[in-house]
Specification:
heterodimer; A: 256 residues; alpha/beta; six-stranded mixed beta sheet; 8 helices; B: 261 residues; three-stranded antiparallel beta sheet; 12 strands; 26% helix; 26% strand
Amino acid sequence: MSDVTRADICVAACAEAWRGDGEIIASPMGLIPALGARLAKLTFAPGLMLSDGDANYLTDPTGTDSHVEAHIPYRQLFDFVWHGSRHVMMGASQLDKFGNQNISAIGTDFAQPKVQLIGVRGAPGNTVNHPTSYWIANHSPKVFVEKVDVVSGLGYDRARGVGHPARFHELRRVVTNLAVFDFQTPDHRMRVRSIHPGVTIDEVVDATGFVLIGTDRGRIEATPEPDAEALRLIREVLDPENTREREVPSARTGRR
Amino acid sequence: MRDKRMTVDDVVAELRDGDVVGIGGWGSRRKPMALVTAIAKSSLKDLTVVSYGGPDVGMLCATGKVRKAVYGFVSLDTIALDPHFRKARQEGRIEVSEFDEGALQWGLYAAALRLPFLPTRAGLGTDVMRNNRELRTVDSPYDDGEKLLAMPAIHLDAALVHLNRADMYGNTQYLGPDIYFDDLYCLAAKKRYVSCERIVDTAELLAAGPPQSLKINRMMVDGVVEAPGGAGFTSCVPDYGRDEAAQKAYATGDVFVEASR
């Protein structure tokens, strides 16, 4: 068995979200998605546009020979969001079986929430306008819930209710510290796409607060490990300090 | 031409209880903290604050100045959540309108253009519609027949922004990576106040940046305040970056902290 870590696998699984996206803005939120987006750009998705965290877009965000190739201030960023030339990978404090996401507040009384989070941010506009994926560092029943408290990012059932104006809605994949999911089912319920090496399907089921589709033991695939070149890039170029290990520790079996 | 120079206190004196105040910058970047701090220490009350929120919102919540906050997010960037804003929310002390951040831009833009609303998809189907009961949809009058969110104009009584340079007439220059929405705040407001790192002669403006950096001009400005370090502890690049230590002190204790700038 190789010495590939869970964090390495998560980075590669996040990178896969952008495969085939062409020349669009990749907006990763969080460390592992950021590493994934850069990995994708350096390997199979060279067309991706990546920002420096502000308004400048860099040819090679990790390289020594990097140049500003574009300038997109927030005013113009929303043009691209609404134009559809972007694929974001956001986090979620709660996510339900249809992919409704909450980053706004916890609790049923919005006038006085139990916990105020960051706010809906760009989630409503992102999800209704261009492809969205999610990264969940700590897969647990507290995150994967039957019903989210404040729908910030649009799920498939809500999008169906909106109808034609939500025709650009598309949830690509959900990557967690345990597994990869997508919504390619007849009614777009979240299903298991693969589970990370070393994780059991029971762990995934136990850590999910709604009924998962695709948990038939005979058919579950393992999330692919990064190939040798991807692994080299992750370890030597993208994250030589191994900061990813802090977000997805190897020692952890998955649940906290 | 009118010399529009003022002091921080002059600006605060122009504000009234209950005003709708738009505050420029983004998160913990280029916030007009000198002006915000003066408001926090004033007797003003019942303000509605419109912001791409950072410590401006937190400080005004902590000091009891806010009746209502209008925002897409409130964050300190390197500290994800502003504890003072969270506390006010979790104690139910303030009203809020939480919109998609692009829709918020649309609301300011509609006010700037003197339109009642601008259509968007950003918010459809989400709880933004449930939590903001005043929101309405609008049917496209054309063949597509799309039903869109009619994002209402967000009219401001006053706009407060902090940029790098200005002349005494209000021609204002940003030298950092992003104007954010500062120009829109000015166009959406009845009274517009710019604080800046340095007031320079008009002839000097182009020494620091190209004509494109003059994104706010004197038509859009009623008062100019020279406030060196006036964005601290938030960032105001290239003049200075964020004072992370001061921000941490703000987040963990009293909102009034000494920034290094």
